TrEMBL record, chain A:
It comes from the Eukaryota. The keyword RNA-binding applies. This is Signal recognition particle 9 kDa protein. One of its GO terms (molecular function) is 7S RNA binding. It is found in: Cytoplasm. Residues 3-70 form the SRP9 domain. It comes from Rotaria sordida. GO terms for cellular component: cytosol; signal recognition particle, endoplasmic reticulum targeting. Component of the signal recognition particle (SRP) complex, a ribonucleoprotein complex that mediates the cotranslational targeting of secretory and membrane proteins to the endoplasmic reticulum (ER). SRP9 together with SRP14 and the Alu portion of the SRP RNA, constitutes the elongation arrest domain of SRP. The complex of SRP9 and SRP14 is required for SRP RNA binding. Keywords: Cytoplasm, Ribonucleoprotein, RNA-binding, Signal recognition particle. Belongs to the SRP9 family.
Automatic annotation (TrEMBL), chain B:
Keywords: Cytoplasm, Ribonucleoprotein, RNA-binding, Signal recognition particle. Belongs to the SRP14 family. Component of the signal recognition particle (SRP) complex, a ribonucleoprotein complex that mediates the cotranslational targeting of secretory and membrane proteins to the endoplasmic reticulum (ER). SRP9 together with SRP14 and the Alu portion of the SRP RNA, constitutes the elongation arrest domain of SRP. The complex of SRP9 and SRP14 is required for SRP RNA binding. This is Signal recognition particle 14 kDa protein. It comes from Rotaria sordida. GO terms for cellular component: signal recognition particle, endoplasmic reticulum targeting. Residues 157-170 have a biased composition (Polar residues).
Length: 75, 170
């Protein structure tokens, strides 16, 4: 069940992650001519598929922000 | 294999190159938050659970502890598995290097042929949106001036969208 628009995926993914950050993981599968992103918290799973190069930039920005949030200090 | 951050990035570039050469197989990258545990969390006995409940009711927990999380990054290609742990003080360096790596290596994807927002150039995937968009913006911003200087085609568009304008003319 793939989400069609990137903005929708980003919004839902952020919501899902902030809901339960310790149990969420982002998986990125890179094949020849296809890129699949999957964010899951073991209850629900959001997937995004693309074959275009312009989505790599968006995906990479999203991954960086998520990486920063994951490795941050929290009070 | 658990590696240091720099080693992990080096090995990851090698994996990308291998994938390019072989032209088959999928490279998976996984990111997850990690709280530094090395032992599994044991389940509490009934007694401990009751104690925990009663203590939380009597002393409401004030979160003053600072928890420092790390990030676990894994890469899998075929049978090769790599992993690394990034803590918050290495995050800046790692994140820059990692994003550069991804940008540089994920280049076997297609380029989109659509050109939007350029001056009316036709592409293979044109739809009627592109020629309308500059005209729509002019119609919305300065209706008075465009009414006076409108060409016939745009006038027809305006008549469809803003039915009040012919009334104004009269």
């Amino acid at each position: 069940m793939f989400i069609q628009s990137w903005d929708e995926f980003a919004k839902q993914a952020e919501r899902l992650y902030l809901n339960d950050p310790i149990n969420c993981r982002l998986c990125l599968k890179y094949r020849n001519e296809m890129l699949i992103l999957r964010l899951t918290d073991n209850h629900t799973c959001l997937q995004y598929k693309t074959k275009y190069a312009q989505d790599v930039k968006k995906a990479e920005k999203f991954m960086s922000s998520l990486l920063r949030h994951m490795a941050s200090k929290e009070t | 294999m658990l590696l240091e951050n720099d080693n992990f990035l080096l090995e990851l570039t090698k994996l990308f190159q291998q994938q390019r050469v072989k032209n088959s197989g999928s490279l998976s990258l996984i990111m997850k938050r990690y709280d530094g545990r090395t032992k599994p969390k044991p389940k509490l006995t009934k007694k401990q659970r009751l104690e925990q409940k009663s203590s939380s009711i009597s002393h409401p927990t004030t979160h003053e502890t600072v928890v420092e999380y790390k990030c676990l990054v894994r890469a899998v290609y075929g049978s090769k598995k790599l992993s690394t742990i990034v803590s918050s003080k290495d995050i800046n360096r790692f994140q820059l290097a990692y994003s550069n790596l991804l940008k540089a290596n994920m280049d076997t994807l297609k380029k989109k042929a659509k050109e939007n927002k350029t001056t009316g150039q036709t592409s293979t995937n044109t739809n009627s949106n592109t020629p309308l968009s500059p005209r729509m913006t002019t119609a919305t911003t300065t209706t008075a001036t465009t009414i006076a200087s409108s060409s016939s085609s745009s006038a027809s568009n305006q008549q469809k969208k803003t039915p009040t304008t012919p009334a104004k003319r009269k």
